[in-house]
Predict the structure of Tyrosine-protein kinase.
Amino acid sequence: MASSIMEECFIKRSQQKKKTSPLNYKERLFVLTQEKLSYYEYDQDKGRRKSLRGTVDLQKVKCVEKVYPEHHAPTERLYPFQVIYDDGPLYIFAKNGEIQSEWIRKLKEIVRYNKDLKQKYHPCFWVDGQWQCCQQEVKQAMGCRVLQGLSKDRGGSGKPLPPTPVEEPAVQTLSLEPPKPSLSVGMTVIAEHEYIPLSAQDLELKKDEEYTILEMPDANWWRARDKYGREGYIPNNYVVQAGNVLERYPWYCKNMNRSQAENLLKTENKDGGFVVRDSRLKAGQYTVSLFSKISGETAGSCRHYNICTTSQGQFYLADKHFFSTIPELITYHQHNAAGMVSRLKIIVSNRAHAPSTAGLGYGMWEINPRHLTFIKELGNGQFGVVKYGKWQGQHDVAIKMIKEGSMSEEEFIEEAKIMMKLCHENLVQLYGVCTKQRPIYIVTEFLSNGCLLTYLKEGLKQHPTNIQLLEMCKDVAEGMAYLESNQYLHRDLAARNCLVDTNGTVKVTDFGLSRYVLDDEYTSSEGSKFPVRWSPPEVLLYRKFSSKSDIWAYGILMWEIHTLGKLPYERLDNQAIVDQVSKGYRLYRPQLANERVYSIMKSCWPEKAEERPTFQELAVNVQDLLYEFQ
Ligand code: ADP
Ligand code: MG
């Protein structure tokens, strides 16, 4: 038997492998060897080890960290720590801080060369189906806090880390302060974009200047004060918390994915052009995308280099030149290719592109039609003509002119106030409505690449890669996960109800709108316009809409994306679809989808609605696949 390194009686929390399994705390004797962490029943009176209750294979451990104790924790549960492995978190409570630190240190030392060590973790407990720190409801959800020692914030302190001898374990200690709510009144933020007030109550934002947050009355608009003491409302997606330093570098493009980076770099077409982006695929990791032209070449190509982290928390790129912060690493490679195809010569930035605000100014949802100019017609939809235009002569908008008799307007206008508050980078933003005249207008964000269905059929310049197609799927999953977290149903999710912006990002539109359509052909499931091809059996048979019918539609949308816009069940008419789908017939695997992609699609199509995943889970699954493709 392997010799034990340490033994200790701890309280162990039950692992709640199922959401409904009970939460209990039992005293166990923990025995640590070089290979395993085992726990036994323990006979207090005789001081003897009894039967083995469980074992963790230390090679599978992904993270060992302190946990912030529960509110009003009893005295015996004040020093918890977590061992994260395949089966999820194992929570252990030590008697005092010393024992807690000693065990964490020893465990970290043993696991420090494990594969797949996490860079982000949850500082609080998983309780009854929810992470207490970030309220996410998926157990596998990526951690919400970057491990200290890896944090990108570190670059801002200006203090390089002291060199760590190799023998030292990769200890990433965490001070036991309560996790700060990431955003709070009184905090200082820095403007990432210029904001010119759209309404009289708003405050102007100047890029890179600091502001203090005074009030957070709304999900999207906060009241802030600038350095001159002026106060007003600002769109909170235009600012970042001071200290998130990467955001302050022009080369950092936070929400950019691989295809968007390639698009941007190819458009710039400059040898040595680069961006640094989140390797969205793995939390807390970054990727350098670099464009280069071999001399004489006209086309050029992109390469992607992951910024690697050593177990001591240092950063390096292709060759192993180590730096304690990412900005230092970038500065070095601006002068030295050191293993890359070229040095990082030219910073390419997408910062000019400011995100959409939730409405045109705080509290603004009625728009004065005289502030709109119409430029050209974009298309014709269920409610009539859609036009591209400008608001106040400078802001791009799309305007739906609602044909009279096509919509239950009163109800919609009420709903619009709620829709305005939905604000996510993968949802088409509703800016406001003009309701004082007829026809009424719905004013939204304008997306220059138009409808996704048309884009798939005609708009892709080159044959798309697997990654590009999956990134579209991921965009939609993220937008839908946001709707899901707000308990908002789409009811008509399909490629025709997604739009594509200039850099290829896909955004979901027309959410919830089908409830206000006045047209029997559309609303009745026997009608010719009812989205039969996107509907699950329970909708076709009993009109039972739920978040799970949106999931079914998402699977069909993934299929549309991977067939470049084919009509689902193209050889069947509506009646045949109802018959076949309720008998268990499903769409085939598109050529562009491999088995893994197809299995995600199919996971949306079990007959039993409750067996379908959530959008949160889908987003994670698509992301995992993307990571493997990289
Ligand atoms: P409806 O939902 O009323 O049926 P659509 O949303 O389908 O109408 O709009 C019709 C067409 O107008 C779309 O296919 C698309 O090409 C274009 N369009 C609609 N909204 C926008 C927008 N926000 N940005 C760019 N194009 C748009
Ligand atoms: Mg539509």
